[in-house]
Design brief:
Strand content: 35-45%
Number of strands: 42
Shape: elongated
Mean pLDDT: 88
Number of domains: 4
Distance between the termini: 97 Å
Length: 479
């Protein structure tokens, strides 16, 4: 026997490997593999295996080129008279199905995309008014794009002049995890089916403060037991507020939805104008006891009004449970005023469907909340009854005053729910000893007085409020 070595100008090697499906991780048969520049091709077998023999040594791009899969390539070096192993992925093409309504909404992509936002929406740029993230925007009418690539975006706000419906290719996220920062951010729907919000966050042992629809009425607010929606729908994006950062994992599922519409807006049968949902809103929590006290029944309405009696938020009462009213902000991209401006006062009204009567709702705003009666984008407020003496959970004697927060760690606010008055304030402990006396202060509904009792020990206290016309007492607790 003899071994014959052939010497010449060229040397050869072997290229082999396994093709796996990106989605499943399993070997993928019948995938066309090509060595570019050499015109060589082969097909993966049942076990995903492929092989090229007698390949001239050198560097070549080796690509997956198969219908229904993204064309991908790797750079392989074929060593002389050796076998080179290069495993590859066949990445199935999935369509992101965008169904964008006219006006404002939130959008995200179920599948991963790496194109510029402007390229994705180029065929529809005439219908796109603006697309914005938390720190950038694409404004085709002004030829401005600070968003760059879609990449791994958690979502965007979009305003469309007309409805936009189209598909755009993407591939499955591996893994489908999202880092959610503390504070406000966008929350996408990175699953191909609807995802339960509570289950999504329970899996990481924390719940959001709030999830709310963008330009919609849907609110998920565990702290107030308000759940007007409970699922994230594919293709949508939402606002989320977190007390602390966390990382969530979206479940895998088959595509069974293209993104259900948002929570249906109430059919407005009042005499009020129907508000236009805009890209920012201020949520106002309305507790059950206030709804009952106001005599509101299922089918009646609550509305948010500015000083000119424009209605910029409306909700239909569905029962005696707590409700949340979304007051929408002014859209800076329209000439007409269609929402509240920052810092503008919000007034609430009730509409009684049976009688057709509209009345001012007699409330005060809870000082314990981040915001009160003045509009703020993504603001959070809660209202209390004026006539019950409720002060953030403490039910005292009926009076024209309210204290909040109550209990307190020391800082407390006093509001007059009737009108601005000049008053004197005294504070007594539970033994009746006077611990504090103020000089004359002006106290009103829009001008609460702030008191600092941080040096007082924990316990029960009485605040005596003395005006020229009356004397009132309010109880409060220092924790």
């Amino acid at each position: 026997d003899y071994t014959v070595f052939v010497e010449g100008d060229e040397s050869y090697g072997t290229l082999q490997g396994t093709v796996s499906n990106w989605d499943t991780g399993l070997p993928q048969a019948n995938i066309n593999i090509e060595i570019q520049d050499l015109g060589l091709s082969t097909t993966s077998g049942a076990d995903g295996y492929y092989e090229f023999d007698f390949v001239p040594s050198g560097e070549y791009y080796v690509s997956v080129n198969q219908a229904g899969y993204f064309q991908t390539a790797i750079l392989a070096y074929i060593a002389p008279w050796e076998t080179t192993t290069e495993d590859m992925f066949a990445i199935p093409i999935h369509d992101n199905q965008f169904q964008i309504p006219q006006g404002w909404s939130g959008i995200s992509s179920v599948y991963y995309m790496y194109q510029d936002v402007s390229d994705i929406f180029a065929p529809h740029s005439d219908d796109v008014v603006i697309i914005s993230s938390m720190d950038g925007f694409y404004y085709p009418g002004q030829n401005v794009n600070t968003l760059g690539k879609w990449y791994d975006s958690p979502g965007y706000k979009i305003k469309a002049s007309n409805a936009i419906n189209f598909d755009f290719p993407g591939w499955t996220r591996q893994p489908s995890t999202l880092s959610v920062p503390a504070g406000w951010s966008f929350l996408p729907a990175w699953s191909a089916c609807a995802v339960n919000i509570q289950d999504l966050f329970d899996a990481v042992g924390t719940q959001p403060v709030i999830v709310k629809e963008i330009a919609g009425a849907g609110v998920y607010w565990p702290g107030k037991s308000v759940y007007s929606f409970s699922e994230l729908n594919p293709g949508k994006a939402y606002f989320v507020l977190m007390n602390s950062a966390t990382t969530i994992q979206f479940p895998e599922c088959a595509l069974n939805s293209t993104g259900a519409s948002q929570v249906s807006a109430s059919v407005n049968t009042t005499t009020w104008d129907t508000p236009v949902p805009t890209g920012n809103s201020h949520l106002i929590h309305v507790p059950q006891n206030l709804i009952q006290h106001a005599g509101l029944l299922a089918g009646d309405y609550l509305g948010a009004f500015d000083a000119n009696d424009n209605c910029f938020g409306i909700i239909q009462i569905t029962g005696s449970q707590d409700h949340v009213l979304a007051a929408f902000g002014d859209d800076a991209l329209t000439a007409a005023k269609d929402g509240f401006e920052d810092g503008e006062q919000i007034t609430l009204k009730a509409f009684y469907t049976k009688t057709g009567q509209s009345d001012l709702l007699d409330v005060i705003f809870d000082m314990q909340m981040p915001n009160q009666q003045f509009f703020a984008a993504e603001g959070l407020s809660s209202v209390l009854l004026k006539s019950t003496g409720i002060s953030s959970g403490y039910l005292g004697s009926q009076s024209n005053f309210a204290l909040s927060p109550n209990p307190t760690t020391g800082i407390i606010y006093l509001q007059s729910i009737v009108k601005d008055e000049i008053m004197q304030v005294k504070v007594f402990d539970n033994q009746g000893r006077q611990l504090y006396e103020s000089s004359s202060v002006i106290i009103g509904a829009s001008q609460p007085a702030r008191f600092d009792f941080t040096g007082f020990p924990a316990g029960f206290y009485t605040m005596k409020i003395v005006s020229s016309k009356a004397v009132a007492e309010e109880k409060f607790i220092i924790k």
